[in-house]
Amino acid sequence: MSMIVGKKGLKSDINITPYIDILLVLLIIFMVAAPLKQHDHPVRVPQPAPPTQPKDVKPDSIIVEMDLDHTVRLNNQAITLDKLETTLTEVFARRAVKNMFIRGDASLPYGDVFVLLDIAKRSGVADIALLEKKEKNAPIDSAKRSY
Fold first, then answer.
1. Tens digit of pLDDT at every position of the chain (147 positions)
2. Domains and CATH numbers, the chain
3. pTM here?
């Protein structure tokens, strides 16, 4: 520490030169020592899981369809709304993947489709996708195509 006596009184400053010298010496020591340390940690890369199913087999999906005349089909089998909830509850109680598709005509009122959504949620379905039913022989309008 040095003291300077001047016109305005005493002024004390810390001499930081020795601290900078020590800092530079430590920096050089760590720069030299860092490459000498060997890191012998084995790298484990995750391996792909063995295939449990053949690739050509598609997982079975649950599709509930509603026509304009309010007939309901579960995987192309006719079913009533009363039996639909109990059937879906039994099916999804045994499944790990709780996904379902609801396919309906675009001109159906949303309230009718909402009944199916409500039944599905009460049955324990986690994810529901809505699909639009298209006629098999309907021509595709080029203005409606989306790329």
1. 555 666 677 777 888 899 999 999 999 999 988 877 776 777 777 777 766 544 443 557 888 898 888 889 988 889 988 898 999 998 888 888 888 888 888 888 888 888 888 998 998 888 888 887 766 544 444 444 443
2. 2-33 (no CATH), 62-133 (3.30.420.270)
3. 0.51
